[in-house]
Write a structure and sequence with these properties.
This protein has one domain. 4% of the residues lie in helices and 44% in strands. It contains 2 helices and 17 strands. A hairpin with a 4-residue loop joins strand 1 and strand 2.
Length: 241
């Protein structure tokens, strides 16, 4: 079955743009302006190129699978021309509703893009993700492909750990996703942990993010907690099926 992602985006001047593209599972994909011809939108353009000089204030991502509701939102964001995360976008499955405000406005210019990753729900080890926003405005996204009954360190797109990427920052909100039908840890109390967890170098538990399935009718919910990050802190996924 084919899967597409739509992104609805509102600008500070009240205008809208609509992005839509076919996507492959667990593949970060740029979503460009809709090419259906239904709407009065220039097709197949990056969001920054299509809306130069405008400022995005609200956005929502929708995962839609043909004749099914198995598509789950993992994460999405605005990226700058160098591929750095500017601001995460909230999203969900085909029945998602709303148009949430961004954690910060994003100025449109050539090279600014929207990229999204989705997964199909299944009773299996899946990719976990955390989209994090810091008090300074710095944002990043961390992922890990789970391994049954094993700690897996979460890293950003450059291969940096939570502590390496965010040292000295204070994370103030994040959303997390893990699209396993029966949850992150569903086969016993000694094998997995039902949250993605943040630890210090000495093993002190600093924070936990309970992940969403990613096919909800409401957008990915922000988990608001202040976590000060040190160089050797880690984010970990420990799943079991």
């Amino acid at each position: 079955m084919a899967t597409q992602v739509s992104v609805l985006c509102r600008m500070s001047d009240g205008t809208f743009t609509y992005l839509r593209d076919a996507v492959s599972a667990e593949t970060l994909t740029q979503i460009k302006t809709d090419a259906s011809g239904i709407l009065n939108i220039s097709p197949n353009l990056g969001i920054g190129t299509a809306n130069q000089g405008k400022t995005a204030t609200h956005a929502l991502g929708i995962v839609q699978t043909d004749s099914a509701t198995t598509g789950c939102w993992s994460y999405g964001a605005f990226y700058d021309p160098q591929g750095t995360v500017l601001c995460p976008i909230q999203g969900g499955g085909s029945a998602v509703t709303g148009l949430p405000a961004l954690s910060k406005p994003v100025r449109m210019q050539s090279g600014v893009t929207v990229k999204v990753s989705y997964q199909a729900v299944a009773d299996a080890v899946k990719m976990a993700s955390i989209a994090a926003v810091c008090a300074s405005g710095k944002c990043d996204i961390f992922t890990a492909t789970a391994v049954d009954d094993t700690d897996v360190s979460m890293q950003n797109a450059s291969g940096a750990t939570w502590g390496e990427a965010l040292a000295g920052q204070t994370v103030v909100q994040a959303y997390a996703s893990y699209p396993a039908t029966n949850g992150l840890a569903d086969t016993g109390i000694v094998d997995g942990v039902d949250a993605l967890f943040i630890e210090s170098a000495s093993g002190q538990l600093l924070g936990m993010y309970a992940p969403e399935l990613g096919n909800q009718s409401t957008p990915s919910a922000w988990i608001r907690q202040a976590i000060r990050v040190s160089q050797n802190d880690t984010a970990t996924c420990r799943a079991n099926v």
